[in-house]
Design brief:
By secondary structure, the protein is α+β, with helices and mostly antiparallel strands. The protein has one domain. 47% of the residues lie in helices and 13% in strands. The protein is built from five helices and four strands.
């Protein structure tokens, strides 16, 4: 049986929750443990990082136990979803990868601040 990946996300963010809900419906080649830090804040301690940083950016532990954060976490999820592996391959192109990482970080920060302002947690 393939190793599991663990996806750490924040369901209190409506945008994040919608994205994760859609991803859960897609088939994956390995098992995925979906870890919601909103329902269990201690999950962030397993990553040795600040809870607020996990709320801000998607975190994934890959099958080898390597931590992937932000856009790199999306790449890991796509690599484990047969119908989305093409997204992972395209996303890894050097210039595009850099651009997508920077764009994700800006978007994630803005979304985090929006959620905080609306007191979603």
């Amino acid at each position: 049986m393939p190793e599991k990946i663990r996806v750490f996300y924040n369901s209190a963010c409506p945008v994040c929750n919608a994205g994760i809900s859609a991803q859960k419906k897609k088939s994956v080649s390995c098992q995925v443990d979906w870890e919601d830090v909103h329902l269990d804040e201690d999950k962030a301690k397993e990553l040795n990082t600040d809870l607020e940083f996990v709320r801000e950016r998607l975190h994934v532990l890959d099958a080898d136990g390597n931590l992937k954060v932000g856009y790199e976490a999306f790449i890991t999820i796509w690599e484990n979803s047969p119908k989305e592996q093409w997204k992972a391959r395209v996303s890894k192109l050097a210039g595009l990868r850099w651009f997508l990482n920077k764009g994700y970080n800006v978007f994630a920060r803005g979304l985090y601040l929006w959620n905080r302002a609306l007191k979603h947690w």
